[in-house]
């Protein structure tokens, strides 16, 4: 490993290796030295299923494993190569003066061999594999682009079954452009912690103040910035990734809410509403998973609401009844989301163990302005009450809509009039005991 360019070495504390920032500088320096004539290769090495080892054996064992792997990688490299740690379970290699792509392939094969040898830890032997992405420099290459391309190739290797290496090529680039349309990008987002939960306050229209929050998923995409769920939930659903993503959202939301509840005690516990997708509802383990998350996070079970859209419930209403009963048996509550946009059968609605209807924002939008919308919103609130359910209005944006909802006797409301969804940290800046009586919330 060369240290010639370590004028400002920023290092990874665990392994003592250069970190990403330092690595990119070194790649840049190497490209400058080669002046576009000598080829440089960047490898991104991602350990497969490292999280499982870490979860099963604990963080200390996980750290020990990473240190051993770092040693082995150093051993496999030439003195002129640079090894760095990208963070988590990922490493970077800069290979100067590679003859051709075959050379980079040979190196990747050597690294694969080194990593797949068993690692001895205190609790016994562990086997790990790695997915490796390789990018080599062409004319006009830049350091950040090379690292990004190698990273894209690494995710392609994971996508193609892991424990393999992939060379970045034009087709990989096409895939990268379409990042939002690939399942591997979603998997990467989950593994790298690119998802975030935002919280939108739910307002108690009778008593005033915040009664709780709805958890709404966001993707902090490294290049595209904040991405709304409308752009990726569909893909998460078709790839099945919504199951782990949804479990993550529930856990994050419950953990944060438990914190607020503890800080605000003895005030009544704030509620938390989490959206469930059809795919999650079809998972036989859902009730047990929910019970485990509620128990582990310490959130008050009685304060957890799960939101399910009308159509999801009606596709197979008979089995939905069973699942909802099992969920209710765990002490959580069920609300029907986007009510009025689907095709509920009233006879099923009566039998479903739900406790609230969320009036869709398309009806709230025209409240008091459009006769048809007003009639439909009125019908939704009346239906909720006729069935003994609570009504929650979504997408309230104006004082006029709020006034209409109050006249209708709608119990709760959410919308930009009160607050947009925020990361917990923003809400946390408010003294938690004031959350329940958050002033300026559109009270008339
Ligand atoms: P939803 O559950 O009906 O959530 C309400 C949506 O309306 C949110 O959009 C929220 O940001 C937006 N909204 C709130 N107040 C207003 C308002 O006053 N005006 C307008 N125009 N919009 C308002 P978002 O966050 O983009 O979520 C869209 C949908 O994505 C959600 O609709 C939900 O169906 C789905 N979703 C969000 N997070 C998750 C999740 O963790 N899991 C699953 N399965 N679905 C989720
Ligand atoms: Mg919802
Ligand atoms: Mg909704």
SS elements, strand count:
17
* Terminal residue distance: 68 Å
Strand % is 15-25%
Strand order of the largest sheet: 8-9-11-12-13-14-15-16
Which key phrases capture this entry?
about 450 residues; alpha/beta; Alpha-Beta Plaits; TIM Barrel; 8-stranded mixed beta barrel; 5-stranded mixed sheet; 19 helices; 17 strands; disordered N terminus; disordered C terminus; binds ligand C2E; binds magnesium ion
Please give a structural write-up.
This protein folds into 2 domains: 166 residues, Alpha-Beta Plaits, CATH 3.30.70; 198 residues, TIM Barrel (Alpha-Beta Barrel), CATH 3.20.20. Helix content is 45%, strand content 20%. It contains 19 helices and 17 strands. The protein has an 8-stranded mixed barrel with strand order 8-9-11-12-13-14-15-16. A 5-stranded mixed β-sheet has the order 2-3-1-6-7, with helices on both faces. Helix 14 links the parallel strand 13 and strand 14. The longest helix has 23 residues. The site of one magnesium ion (MG) has 5 residues, from strand 13.
Topology:
Elements: H1 20-34, E1 41-47, H2 50-57, H3 59-76, E2 82-87, E3 90-95, H4 101-116, E4 119-121, E5 124-126, E6 130-136, H5 143-159, E7 165-167, H6 170-177, H7 183-191, E8 195-204, E9 210-221, E10 225-227, H8 233-239, H9 242-264, E11 271-275, H10 278-281, H11 286-297, E12 304-309, H12 310-315, H13 317-329, E13 333-339, H14 346-351, E14 356-359, H15 361-365, H16 371-386, E15 390-393, H17 399-408, E16 412-413, E17 422-423, H18 424-428, H19 432-435
Helix pairs in contact: 2-3, 3-4, 5-7, 9-11
This protein binds ligand C2E and magnesium ion (MG) (2 copies).
One magnesium ion is lined by residues 337-338, 358, 360, 394.
